Amino acid sequence: VWPPRFANTKIRDINREVDQIKFDIQDLERWRDRIFSAIHSGVVVNDEGKSVELTESRGIDILGNIIESSIISENKNLYGDIHNLGHVAIALCHDPENKNLETFSVMGDTATAMRDPIFYRWHAFIDDLFQEHKNTLPRYTQEQLDFPGVRVKSVQISGENLSPNTLATYWQKSDVDLSRGLDFTPRGSVYARFTHLQHVPFTYKIEVENNGPPKAGTVRIFLSPRFDERGLPMLFRDQKNLFIEMDRFKVALKGKTNIILRKSDESTVTIPFERTFRNLDANRPDEEDTTRADQFNFCGCGWPHHMLVPKGTADGFPCSLFVMVSDYEQDKVSGSVTGTCDDAFAYCGIRGSVYPDKRSMGFPFDRQPRTGAGDLKRFMTPNMFTQNVVIIHNNRVVSPNVPSVQL
């Protein structure tokens, strides 16, 4: 049973000897201020007192190791562990000194933290730290974004029994085997049925014109809301932070017109339902074989495919679908771009290799727009295209093993 957090509870200094946890809220504030100072100065101070520059290519990695903080933080004594101990401060705010002998709340366990609404407020703050760093980087020029000779002429989404450029979601019931989580003598499989968001499979149709010789490109697909909370078209500086990546893949472009068809279940962001809730005992290698064990564990990385599409609304939630084709020669990295369980490489990378894209994660929305690009239309170059789409949510529940959904 998780302890509750009552209304108007305030976070306070944590001093729990039994858990060997002691830190002050002022510690979090000092770490925050030092991180902001490092971002604005463009350098961090490592544990040897030397300055380490937050460069365009490596700065985000250095900052991530500090904020998380990981064992390779440049200086844990100076920059602390703001992300994790923020979780702890919230998780123990109901009993910060262990006077009531209560354990931590849901925010203190990675398996349950996302069930707490405050999780998203805390992570919005953590995201703001990274955005602050990204805002200090040089803005992408039109030349950096363009792909000379390549033009995206049209984009369309189609799904079974759906109008063009319509995405549809609904509720799906699925069964999960819980037997390996039970602590008594096994008596066969024990299944639990739960309800989760699901979407109707769809296909992208992208028309690309190549006015030069055959070449390779990288297709990048993103989705974001079109309007703000007042119903007004979003300014690009706000909208760019709300784009979610739907897919990314390499494509060969022949001369003249190219028609690219891509199914939603081919996304390099997601993993299938079967791997999200896989049997961790089946085909599991011996733990002494660390290489194969690490590979096995890595295969669980990826965004659940049934959560690829946001929920939407009954009336249809208006969104912008953004498609960009960038120059693969500028995107490619040395080393392998394939590996064990690489179908979610955009989200997880490739185990044992460099991230398979020289561009930053979130490119081209990871920096402030160039001067004059006040909205998405003015930001675009010929190798980009936006399509207005709607996400319709049908508030019905579909039972397992139903092959298709009529919406």
UniProtKB/TrEMBL annotation:
Q: Name one GO molecular function term.
A: metal ion binding
Concerning PROSITE patterns, the annotation shows:
HEMOCYANIN_2 (PS00210), TYROSINASE_2 (PS00498)
Q: Which GO terms describe its biological process?
A: melanin metabolic process
Give compartment(s).
Secreted
**Which cellular component appears as one GO term in the record?**
extracellular region
For the Tyrosinase copper-binding domain, which residue ranges apply? 116-127
Where is this protein chiefly located?
secreted
Keyword list (alphabetical) reads: Copper, Disulfide bond, Metal-binding, Monooxygenase, Oxidoreductase, Secreted
Q: Which family does it belong to?
A: Belongs to the tyrosinase family.
Descriptive protein name: Putative prophenoloxidase
Name its species.
Panstrongylus lignarius
